[in-house]
């Protein structure tokens, strides 16, 4: 079955594409538009896909190009139109000195685009540093430092410092899980 | 010691990242995407009708 149409595999990558797009744009509607554009581009340019290479990496590359070119057009206005993630960002950390873990998404939204992107590719999507570097058109070292900075910044935003223990993990985890039940796009 | 803490922090952050991701993945794919794929397929079929 080696002569199967690579276009038949597109559907398998849709959930991952959506997850990446939503995390990147922080806006469900914009993300879905981006994924649709990407699908059309991938479908009509399928001959540019080299069979045997990583299709997900190819699709993510189209997706991020779509994102950056539309963002250039629309300026930063597009991101977070609903304000779902950035509202109340100015809030102080909770009384115990920690931000609630339900704010993880908000913290993610506060990262610089390049840092968030690197972290999403490596930390969440499971790409190697090398793959992520190729997709972003930068050096491997750049991806590594962006990822490290993203993690450090997230830790800072969530009030996790090096000198603190992470015994809050369980509670924090639970709050993320329960938050995920109520949030919707 | 410092790096041990950092590893733990990294794991903690990545776990949450994946949770944010999984949440979207579990939503499944909205029908509009499947409709779009079917449309594209249909278009190709029509365009590909050669003699």
Automatic annotation (TrEMBL), chain A:
| NCBIfam families (alphabetical) | PRK12546.1 (NF009198), PRK12547.1 (NF009199), sigma70-ECF (TIGR02937)
Keyword list (alphabetical) reads: Sigma factor, Transcription, Transcription regulation
Q: Which GO terms describe its biological process?
A: DNA-templated transcription initiation
Name of the featured protein: ECF RNA polymerase sigma factor EcfG
User: Which superkingdom does the taxonomy of this entry point to?
Assistant: Bacteria
Its family? Belongs to the sigma-70 factor family. ECF subfamily.
Keyword Oxidoreductase on entry: no
The record's listing under CDD domains reads: Sigma70_r4
Domain RNA polymerase sigma factor 70 region 4 type residues, every copy: 104-154
Q: Which PANTHER family match?
A: RNA POLYMERASE ECF-TYPE SIGMA FACTO, RNA POLYMERASE SIGMA FACTOR RFAY-RELATED
Q: Which residues form the RNA polymerase sigma-70 region domain?
A: 12-76
Entry-linked SUPFAM superfamilies: Sigma2 domain of RNA polymerase sigma factors, Sigma3 and sigma4 domains of RNA polymerase sigma factors
Q: Name one GO molecular function term.
A: DNA binding
What InterPro entries does UniProt report for this protein, alphabetically? RNA_pol_sigma-70-like, RNA_pol_sigma-70_dom, RNA_pol_sigma70_r2, RNA_pol_sigma70_r4_t2, RNA_pol_sigma_r2, RNA_pol_sigma_r3/r4-like, WH-like_DNA-bd_sf
From TrEMBL, chain B:
Q: Which InterPro entries match?
A: NepR
Q: Which Pfam families match?
A: NepR
Residue span(s) of domain Anti-sigma factor NepR: 12-44
Protein name as it appears in the record: Anti-sigma factor NepR domain-containing protein
The taxonomy runs: Bacteria, Pseudomonadati, Pseudomonadota, Alphaproteobacteria, Rhodobacterales
């Amino acid at each position: 079955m080696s002569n199967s149409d690579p276009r038949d595999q597109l559907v398998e990558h849709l959930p991952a594409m959506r997850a990446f797009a939503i995390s990147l744009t922080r806006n469900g509607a914009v993300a879905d538009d981006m994924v649709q554009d990407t699908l059309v581009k991938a479908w009509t340019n399928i001959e540019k896909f080299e069979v045997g290479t990583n299709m997900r990496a190819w699709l993510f590359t189209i997706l991020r190009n779509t994102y950056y070119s539309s963002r250039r057009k629309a300026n930063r206005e597009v991101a977070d139109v609903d304000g779902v993630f950035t509202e109340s960002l100015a809030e102080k950390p909770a009384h115990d000195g920690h931000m609630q873990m339900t704010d993880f998404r908000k913290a993610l939204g506060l990262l610089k685009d390049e840092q968030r992107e690197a972290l999403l590719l490596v930390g969440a999507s499971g790409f190697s540093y090398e793959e992520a570097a190729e997709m972003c058109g930068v050096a491997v070292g750049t991806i590594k430092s962006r990822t490290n900075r993203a993690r450090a910044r997230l830790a800072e935003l969530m009030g996790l410092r090096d000198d603190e223990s992470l015994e809050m993990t369980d509670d924090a985890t639970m709050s993320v899980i329960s938050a995920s039940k109520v949030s919707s796009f | 010691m410092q790096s041990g803490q950092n590893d733990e922090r990294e794991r903690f952050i990545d776990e949450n990242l994946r949770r944010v991701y999984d949440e979207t993945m579990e939503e499944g794919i909205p029908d509009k995407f499947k409709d779009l794929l079917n449309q594209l397929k249909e278009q190709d079929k029509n365009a590909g009708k050669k003699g």
